[in-house]
Design a protein that fits this description.
The complex is a heterodimer. By secondary structure, chain A is mainly alpha-helical. Chain A has 14 helices and 2 strands, in the order αααααβααααβααααα. The chains are: A mainly alpha, B mainly alpha.
């Protein structure tokens, strides 16, 4: 990895965030701020996916289940029970972590790995979508509209710059969590599980617990993203909350940027938004950007398994990979 | 009693008819899984592409879906072969997790290509026979549904004969059982992979022709089938032909009864729940005995 621990590493990161903080002061066009918010929001959600999918290697196809849970917890507590939106954030995070616990407990107990885990998460998010579509408390397909009442106390800002600050703070926290994983024993256990679960278990890692905790952390973070979404758009409905597209986007952002790295999701998010915003500039048609996403995903898997970020990284001095494939190369910087 | 026998019976019959098509879709998936040990996430999207092709053939050239069947099977076979040789095989380096991602990428591309070309509208076709009814006991079934059911069974039979009775089938079975051994006796394993993938995709060509007269098509229709097909494959046992057939019928009936008792929206939940429960408690499925 890049030398995070050095004073220069600190300086770079500090400069990066300071620069980001200045954006709302200078960028006053709302659409540019909107794009900046979306970039950071995707990066944040990608980072949430990255905790379970990147570091722990449990690639989920259904992370929308967490985002949607957070969104609905915030929306329902506000509109039905009159909670202040800020106060709905802790229950949303806990809700996401609880769903993570449920899915993780069931599927890891059953020993599901790889593709099977990916498919069962997809099925869980489908169940959640159908429930949200038919239950009374979520108002079914109508969705929930949060009444407009701007003000800091209501987590509604007329000025997009304030939303930018909030999403920047969320991103900073997620960034910090990923960074902590890089150096903590917990993170090392997750990487061990990813690289070789049986070997990790043989060395005494409680792999079940490690995976479960990773999914709970990841789920709680994703749920907070859902809460932010509700406050930003003041609306949530089942396909927005639990749609496959959301899950796929989280996975894409992380995989394309470089899963299992601190900066990967940000790089991926910037790349994807560059693709979508430039294509929209030339071709006003639905779907074109996503076609390119799909192509980029295939090319990344085929030619750059460590993601775009591996282009920026100095090559490791020791190269001889024993046998085929990405895992060995991944190990080089773990 | 609100739900008396004739209503339940006709619901079950409708479910069985739909289940036949589901089985055909799942058969391709289970064949690909059984031989290549990969999960083809693009399966639903490839079906969607096939359905649009059938729709186009009718709208532009006036070719009836049933007449288009041989054409579609051949076309989808070609598409599957090229897709495997050109994209899925080389890009995934033979790793399970990579293949899932690559086929996901293919699905994203196809879905949005269809969205770009055909917009998000839902389309149906109307044929002279669309609303002809056939009486089965106390139930009335539309003729296209019955044809789709019988047609699916026929295609399943042809596929079984192909795998069980031909040299190609023998080679496919050899590769499925023992890759290395198959290579040693001179079978071109990579080519068998591509052929198997192509056959699995060709099933979708047939399914699309049988499906369209009774169903709709839109760029998102693949998502409907992806979960259903996976559920059937897992329920029947990964790689099991008989399992896919029985699983398809079970899922069809489950969906019909779920819709009847729980309503249109909540009724779909049965399929996802079956999927989760089978994966958790009996991942080998009904017919997937010890390997």
């Amino acid at each position: 990895m890049i030398g995070w621990t050095t004073p220069r590493g600190w300086a770079h990161i500090g400069a990066g965030f300071a620069f980001a903080l200045l954006i709302p002061a200078f960028v006053t066009q709302n659409f540019l701020l909107h794009i900046a918010i979306l970039v950071l929001f995707s990066a944040y959600l990608g980072q949430a996916w990255n905790i379970a999918g990147g570091y722990a290697g449990q690639r989920s196809f259904g992370h929308a289940v967490f985002v949607g849970t957070g969104a609905y917890v915030t929306a329902i507590l506000q509109t039905r029970f009159g909670w202040n939106p800020w106060l709905t954030l802790p229950p949303a995070i806990i809700g996401g972590a609880a769903v993570g616990w449920l899915i993780g407990f069931l599927s890891f107990r059953a020993g599901l790995r790889g593709s099977y885990f990916a498919l069962i998460t997809l099925a869980f998010s489908e169940v959640a979508r159908i429930l949200a579509n038919s239950l009374e408390i979520t108002r079914g397909g109508l969705g929930i509209l949060v009444p407009l009442s701007p003000g800091f106390a209501n987590f509604q800002f007329a000025n997009k710059g304030n939303f930018f600050i909030v999403v920047l703070a969320m991103f900073a926290v997620a960034f910090g969590i990923a960074w902590w994983l890089e150096k903590s024993r917990f993170g090392a256990r997750l990487v061990a599980v990813r690289e070789n679960e049986d070997a990790a278990a043989a060395l005494g890692v409680d792999t079940f617990k490690a995976k479960l905790h990773a999914l709970m952390l990841s789920g709680g973070m994703a749920a907070l993203g859902g809460s932010f979404y509700v406050q930003y758009y003041l609306y949530v409905e089942p396909p927005i909350a639990y749609g496959v597209e959301r899950s796929v986007e989280m996975l894409l952002v992380s995989m394309i940027g470089g899963s299992g790295t601190v900066l990967g999701p940000l790089v991926g998010s910037i790349a994807l938004h560059l693709i979508s915003d430039t294509t929209r500039h030339f071709l006003e048609a639905p779907g074109v950007a996503l076609i390119l996403y799909g192509i980029v995903l295939i090319l990344i898997v085929g030619f750059l398994p460590d993601g775009l970020i591996s282009l920026f990284r100095r090559r490791p001095t020791v190269v001889p990979d024993t046998d085929s494939g990405a895992p060995a190369r991944r190990g080089a910087h773990a | 009693m609100i739900y008396d026998f004739p209503i339940i019976f006709s619901s079950v019959m409708n479910g069985l008819m739909l289940g036949g098509i589901y089985a055909l879709v799942a058969l391709g998936l289970t064949l690909i899984y059984g031989v290549l040990h990969i999960i083809n996430f693009a399966h639903g999207s490839l079906l969607m592409i096939a359905m649009f092709a059938v729709w186009l053939l009718l709208e532009t050239l006036g070719i009836d879906p049933y007449v288009a069947l041989p054409l579609m099977v051949a076309g989808m076979f070609g598409l599957g072969y090229v897709l495997y040789k050109g994209v899925v095989g080389p890009m995934s380096h033979g790793e399970d997790a990579n293949i899932l991602l690559v086929t996901l990428g293919v699905a994203v591309i196809l879905d949005n290509l269809a969205l770009y070309l055909f917009t998000g509208d839902t389309r149906i076709i109307e044929r002279p026979y669309s609303f002809e009814m056939v009486e089965i006991g106390p139930a009335l079934i539309t003729l296209p549904k019955l044809i789709s059911f019988l047609g699916s069974l026929a295609v399943c039979l042809v596929l079984w004969l192909l795998i069980d009775r031909t040299d190609l089938g023998k080679a496919i079975r050899a590769v499925a059982k023992e890759r290395q051994g198959a290579r040693l006796v001179g079978i071109d394993v990579e080519n068998i992979f591509a052929l198997t993938y192509a056959i699995g995709v060709a099933c979708l060509g047939a399914a699309a022709c049988l499906l369209l007269p009774t169903f709709y098509v839109s760029p998102q229709v693949g998502n409907v089938f992806v979960i259903i097909a996976f559920t059937i494959v897992v329920l029947g046992g990964m790689g099991s032909f008989l399992g896919a057939l029985v699983g398809g019928l079970i899922i069809g009936v489950t969906e019909a009864l779920g819709g009847l008792f729980l309503g249109e929206a909540l009724g779909q939940i049965g399929i996802s729940l079956i999927f989760i429960l089978i994966l958790l408690f009996r991942p080998t499925g009904l017919f997937g005995g010890a390997k």
